[in-house]
Amino acid sequence: MIFVRLIICIFFLSLVTNLPSEDKNNYLDNPEVLSFIEFMQKKHGFLKKELTELFSSARFQEKVIRIMNRQPEGTMTWYQYKEMMVTKERANSGEFFINSYREDLKRAEDIYGVPAEVIASIIGIETRYGKITGNIRVIDSLATLSFNYPRREKFFRKQLEEFILLGREESLDIKKIKGSIAGAMGYGQFMPDSYRKYAVDFDFDGRRDILNNPIDAIGSVANFLSKKGKWEPNTEIVLKAKVLKNQSPTFPSSFKPHMTVRELKKIGLEPFSRLSRNTLVVPIELEGEKGKEYWLGLKNYHALSRYNRSKLYIMAVAEFSYSLENFFY
Description:
- The protein is an alpha+beta fold.
- It has a domain at 238-297.
- 52% of the residues lie in helices and 9% in strands.
- It has helices at 2-17, 31-44, 48-57, 62-68, 72-75, 78-85, 88-112, 116-127, 138-147, 153-170, 192-198, 214-227, 261-264, 299-305, 311-324; strands at 136-137, 178-179, 238-243, 259-260, 269-271, 280-288, 291-297.
- Helix 8 (116-127) packs across helix 15 (311-324).
């Protein structure tokens, strides 16, 4: 009797262990994907056949999830980040880029009010002037983040919708486009919604191509900062601050200026440079090479946060832009 029970247990155990495991690569087995296909049919008029073909080609990317959970903002100090991003090699590439597209950079500055060195800085920080634009298919990264990353699935499902629309509008083969782990694309690493809203045909060839055309990328970065960021011409990004004697500043993290210079004294800071007492600023604390550094973000600090909500990124763009200024004169 015991032997019979043992045989039965082994039989059922074999059934359980041989059950097919969830295949994350087969997105067409996922009910949420099927609902998304139906949504795209009804809202935007896509054919079920073309969307089924698209998602049958999509592949789950485990490394996308892994890297998304380990962003530099939470793992690096400002000193480490600056050492990695603001380098002599990147500056040399920046000089070559500026010499190649000087007129386009200055034209973008004239039209949108964003300094040419800031535009060049962003493209350099993002992709080293088009050298590193990402090696993961965007459809794979967006499918992974839309259906296998619950923490931000709503945001990435919207990006997936925008990406498919972008392909139709710009006649792009979206099964071939590669980008970052988050689905950002091209010289300036635009997310799909930003591509649709802010990319411009800056060389007037009839196409908005920020994937391969640096001139379109220059105009598009400037347009983004002007329209979405509300860039304020002739205004600094950040200014250095100093700690008042015997004070230990503490303040909440923010990207939007919300405190007047007059109010800074209450938290133990004051600007090195002369500013109107009613100027709105956001205090910034960073871990530098020799300890804590304090800065004040102005309106354009907030403008850059619309591009990337990381104080390390914003500071790197500002720092790198200062090193590029001389190449314009």
